[in-house]
């Protein structure tokens, strides 16, 4: 009997917490479907539901362009991180060569330096080289990460040397061994790295804010922030429609891939 | 079929004198070739984009570096002196510390609590895990504006307070409350991550420990104190370190989007060091001061990480 009431309390607490987790999203979507007149009403279901706010956003601002910009940048950086971090992690884990320790320590030391410390030299460099206001300017800082190299080295070390040597004896080239033998062994770690990379680049705000001046190269976070604090100021139905467009795709992707995403986070957390 | 054709391929290759050189590359040589070719781009990247800019920041920090003036005279430690005499900068340091202390403790304690609750049930675990995790995968800017809307003067939260008979609060307009609204939003968004990490940590604790404790008649609280927390210590250290760095860096996005003036207001009450660095560099264009501030930030993070590693790993050492 006592155990049962205990369990009921546990479920009640969890359900209360779940409501706290979900409600802001419900309120966001609800507000985005309201008219400017109803926006301060407290009902969750809009009295006069309308898609006008979404139409207004897509017609009145380059929101679609920003969405595409964000997607391009997140995809390119994620592919680059997945390829280079895995490759460097593999080389450091599985090869002996002159300069290896120095290279690894150099890469690890970049983990200690917060990105904020680099934005000023990056900005000066970008202005000098004409990288501001371009895709390259937005994405160059994220092309490789020390974290990824460290993570992939940990996983690559667990691959037995025997299978790599066996492939060599069979006459496989080194690059082919990397692609066909090493990568399949650490696939879960690579997908975890991809998830982290995509999330952090999709969310990146500080550097895109600094390096992009013209609206055409804004990313979604910069664009949303720009509209919400400027043109849309206090027009909450429009701001919430913009927030919904920004938030929803990622939530949908998460629902599709949640098993892998949660597993991936656990995997990297344990190493 | 395959075997003979491969053989004959090799025979042909051997017959051509030009191609003869290639197979003569020993395994060791081809390894070296592979290693250095593959490391070429990464070395350029880490040197050019990471290491040299880091060193360059130190250099800028020692100079009076206004982006508009062509001369950048060396001024030694003057920028650092200016910063520490600057009330706003000191305020930003204090605020950053508040962000970290309350934010990290909040998310670790609540995250662990949710993980412990989830561990006790056997139905709907996956469902709850997904629900609690959703905020973590949502755009930070979008979340900031949703919470700003919820905590508006005439927003949902105040309407609710009025309904239950509490006077409306200023929230983000109040110099005393704004920082806690922002920290709360950040905790809300980070809970799912903490929960997942703790759940994994809890799974690694052998159930025999709890069974033994049950035999000894230990209370749930004793079990938590004597078994769960000590054995979870590596996970807690990981969470605290990751959480602190996150709070320092991510807080920029939240503060810029949630503070009433987008710049750490009201009255600098939500101004963090990263937001101040941004303002020094890209609003006032004094790159020298801003760079010196980033160096302070760097030392701050370094000291914090070392401190956490030392204190937290020692405390429960068995």
Automatic annotation (TrEMBL), chain A:
It is a multi-pass membrane protein. This is Sugar ABC transporter permease. The keyword RNA-binding does not apply. GO terms for cellular component: plasma membrane. The chain crosses the membrane at residues 7-29, 66-90, 102-123, 135-156, 177-199, 238-257. InterPro entries: MetI-like, MetI-like_sf. Coiled coil: none annotated. Belongs to the binding-protein-dependent transport system permease family. Residues 67-257 form the ABC transmembrane type-1 domain. GO terms for biological process: transmembrane transport. It is found in: Cell membrane. Pfam families: BPD_transp_1. Keywords: Cell membrane, Membrane, Transmembrane, Transmembrane helix, Transport. Gene3D superfamilies: MetI-like. It comes from the Bacteria. It comes from Jeotgalibacillus soli.
